[in-house]
Amino acid sequence: MKEAARGRSGLFVTFEGGEGSGKSTQARSLEKHLKTQGLPVSLTREPGGTPLGEEVRRILLDRGNAGMTPEAELFLYLASRAEHVTRVIEPRLIRGEIVISDRFGDASVAYQGGGRRLGIEFVRALNAKAVRGVKPDITFLLDLDPREGLRRLARKVGEGGCDRIESEALTFHERVREAYLGAAESEPDRFVVLDAQQSEGEIASLIAGRVDELTRDIPRGR
């Protein structure tokens, strides 16, 4: 396991991907896998993870807020993330825990930088202020054609059950995918890009194998 940053000894794992890619399922699967080994692990999500973050999540995903400006959307995500890092993620990493987050800063780069066309570097610069140096050790990007992802989503929740982000046009989701792949290309040492059309079991096995390599030095049974 590589030397921890800023005095933290834990491991920070994030899951990213477009709508319907199965990232939330895989995040839960990894949490279960690590718990069976007696490892100190916690699963969180963005937006959310704190009381403030969950309230922001409600606002962001409410279809009644369809007219929200891209800038307002970005700053709400960043506010939730800043609270999340300070209250949840960093303290647990300092204690030596494994933190799994269903989305993190790369989501803003993809969704607001790419999807909303606010600009990749612009969003990265602002996100750096919110995370205060906290960065994932490994990021699993579940890559899927947005058309398939939206079909999966429609089968799962029905057209009327989609939230504000899920309800965006296909072109928006295509820009999100492109931005995600660009981010992965720019940081190949951190990103693991997985074909989300594989079976859940195949993907879970690949993820578990990669994370097991990084957790060898973390004490078990506490």
Can you tell me about this structure?
The protein is an alpha/beta fold and 222 residues long. It has one domain (5-214): P-loop containing nucleotide triphosphate hydrolases (Rossmann fold, 3-Layer(aba) Sandwich). 52% of the residues lie in helices and 13% in strands. It contains eight helices and five strands, in the order βαβααβααβααβα. It has helices spanning 23-35, 51-61, 70-94, 105-115, 120-131, 146-157, 170-186, 200-214, and strands at residues 11-17, 41-45, 98-102, 138-143, 191-195. The protein has a five-stranded parallel beta sheet, with helices on both faces. Helix 1 (23-35) packs across helix 8, helix 2 runs antiparallel to helix 3 (70-94) and helix 3 packs parallel to helix 5 (120-131). The longest helix is centred in the middle third of the chain and has 25 residues, at 70-94. It starts with 10 loop residues before the first strand and ends in an 8-residue tail after the last helix. Residues 1-6 have low confidence and may be disordered.
- Give me the count of strands: 5
Average predicted local confidence, pLDDT: 93
The count of helical stretches stands at 8
Instruction: Find the CATH topology.
Output: Rossmann fold
Sheet having the most strands: 5 strands, parallel
List the helices and strands and how they pair.
Blueprint: E1 11-17, H1 23-35, E2 41-45, H2 51-61, H3 70-94, E3 98-102, H4 105-115, H5 120-131, E4 138-143, H6 146-157, H7 170-186, E5 191-195, H8 200-214
Parallel strand pairs: 1-3, 1-4, 2-3, 4-5
